[in-house]
Amino acid sequence: MISYVFWGSLALSGIKEGMLVWILFLLCQVGAPALAQDLCQRDAPNGYKVRISLKTALGEDAYEWNQSEMFFFQATMAFAMRRHFQMETYNVDNIILCVQTSRVSFWFVVTSPDNTTMLIPKADVEKAVRMSRHRINNAFLLSDRTLEFLGIYPTLAAPVNPDTPPWLIVFGVVIGAVCVGIIALLISSLLQKRRKEKGMTEDGQDEEDMQVKGVENGINLDGTYNRGFTDDDRFTKL
Amino acid sequence: MQLCCFLSLSLPRAGLKQGPSEHIDNDHETSLPRPKWNNKAEYLLTCIGFAVGVGNVWRFPYLCQIYGGGAFLIPYLIALVFQGLPLLYLELAIGQRLRMGSIGVWNSISPYLGGVGVASMVVSFCVSLFYNTIVAWVLWYLFNSFQEPLPWSQCPLNHNNTGYVEECVESTPVNYFWYRKTLNITPNMETSGSLQWWMVVSLATAWSIVYICFIRGIETIGKAVYVTATFPYLVLTIFLVRALTLPGAYEGLIYLFTWEILKNPQVWLDAATQIFFSLSVAFGGLISFSSYNNQKNNCEKDAVLVGVINSATSIYASIPIFAILGFKAHTNYVSCLNGNILALTNDFDISDMNITVENYEQWFDSLNGTHPSRVSDLNLKTCDLQTFLDQSASGTGLAFIVFTEAVISMPGSQVWAVLFFIMLFSLGLSSMFGNLEGVLTPLHDLKLVPKWMPNELFTAIICLLLFLMALIFCLGSGNYWLEIFNSYVGSVPFLIIAFFEIIAVAYIYGIGRFSDDLEFMTGHRPNIFWKVCWLVISPLMLFVVLVAYVAVQAQTPPTYAAWNPDYVNFPDTEVLPYPDWVFAICVLLSSVPVISIPLVAIYRLICCMSGRHSKDSLHNDPNPYANEDYVVERARP
Question: Domain for residue A192, yes or no?
């Protein structure tokens, strides 16, 4: 791009003007990073701090955070901005990173594609990040907890609300089994009683005959115990 | 030794049937033989199940913890030998000999002491009310354990899904689930709240299960106890194996087995009351269970077996409980440290996972040395493992708050939660058998059941009545009422009843006659140890424990801990005094069950003095001159 500007300006305005433009351009190239540094700084009003915990998330499989990863982050953020705004074409250069620490944490600001000195307000950046949060997390194999945008709180996962609470199902099974058991036992008791009554009426006559026979000389032990002959010294009335 | 004759009081004594056992079995009017146990194992398992209850799991370990395990075991075992076993033997023996429920037995021993039986029945009735509510809570947690994730592991979202419910965030998810989702507790006792339908449903389930086990009396109970009495041991063993492999278990067990000097006299009182309430004497249930026995059964061996197994279960249960408490303390300690580590890492932008739990101390010291003001601004928590281990809980707090929190951190938490709550349910259910038996058998003996009513219907009516009365514990303030019932009904009345029981048998009935009965049943007279215990040691210990307990209770101000989200120091519970009307109810609850003892004695005295007018239907007064042959002839149509 630099060469196009150079040759273009040369061709357009002649050598003298071309030299002036070239000097101005060189100054801009030197000044741009300085300008970008001014835009992105710690506690920048329109910037966000990002905190990444690789070892917590991935443990042994943690990859190293280097310049390529930073570039990937810029690309992801540019994608998020494009996805949100749809009209404007953001590029990697629009995402400016600074204050990188070994934590890993850094600050970033987003500049407008039309005017590199103008920063996109915080609220718009937040909307873009919220919209693509899931994609950003997945790009880095991280989660809401391990890839933090300080100030942008993750939306809480909607609770899974089944139509019937599970405990009602378990309760239904238990109470059904108990009711069936109660009814079964009651019916079987009833049937047993009916059977016993039938049996009683058949041999009721025999039982009474046996009882009348009584005790003779104490030999027939099937008789009733005659309390008239107990040693009742130990019994005292109230 | 004929010491007994000089000591027996000179009250006219009621006669006791001395004839062959077969006719004593028959209930003459209904001609139904008394139910019998199918085999000895069912009887023993039922008694063991009655004695081993939820208190063995959540009260004994707590007492071990606050007094130091080694220090507590000594007074506990002494109380078992000199107080628990004699009382147990006494109850099983009189039930087996006299073959009636508690009311019938005490009426037979001395009509003046018939009130003891009535008191037993009333106390069993009150205990059944609140004990089954605890079983209902266990069922509720059991039903909720079949979810992924467990409902007490995370806070629910608030209405507009912007954050978590505030009450949950300020306390813990476990506390929130217990106090809000389960109890829906009101901030104080004056506000009753409404009936919590899910609690009513759980309570109905609990009572239905109790009813189905009681449908055919001891026939169905005997089958049920094969499961309910043995399953807890299986679960405890599984937990033991699992708990010993968890990190932090070792610290928990060390904490349990510390030996301290017996400095605190309170430990003797707690040991005596624990063994007493743990063995479930004075409920009348043990008398009822042994009344279904064959008379020629060695109840001495049974009593020693039940007592020893009960204590052994307590000790065995405390090992996995403490291992798991140690694991929980360790987990809390590690998460406390991790919170501090994260704060330090974020503030000082140190590389991720450079500070670990192991090198935290060195990092902290170096950072504090270089930037003390920054470090102090972070408000780091002090993490001390001992503080976490010291957090003790007993009762419902242990089961529903502490243990549920520990279970969340265990891998496969659903399985452990289900196992734990099924175990608690089995323990509670087998104890409920004894509680309800202490109510039903005396009612049968009092012949209050109309002849046309089958037993199943009568049991159903009693269960329904108890269920309806227990709905009070399903209100918003239900937990506060349950604590009142537990403290005032489930304590002093039992001590009084047990004291009168032992006095009645040792002095009024007479040790000599009792020894004769024991010789008839077991084949040998009781040795000197039992006699000395029944005559001197146990009544003395009971009396001292009763007086000390009442003295300690009188000194503690009547307050309760209320869960109030609007309290200034929330999540701490707010300590509120009982309102006057509630305190009056507490006094009534303590005194009304035992008031029957003097009332019945006075009533009998008046009757006796006003003439020989003892129309005692329970007495089964044997007319020595009635020849039954003629009775049968007259009855023939």
Answer: no
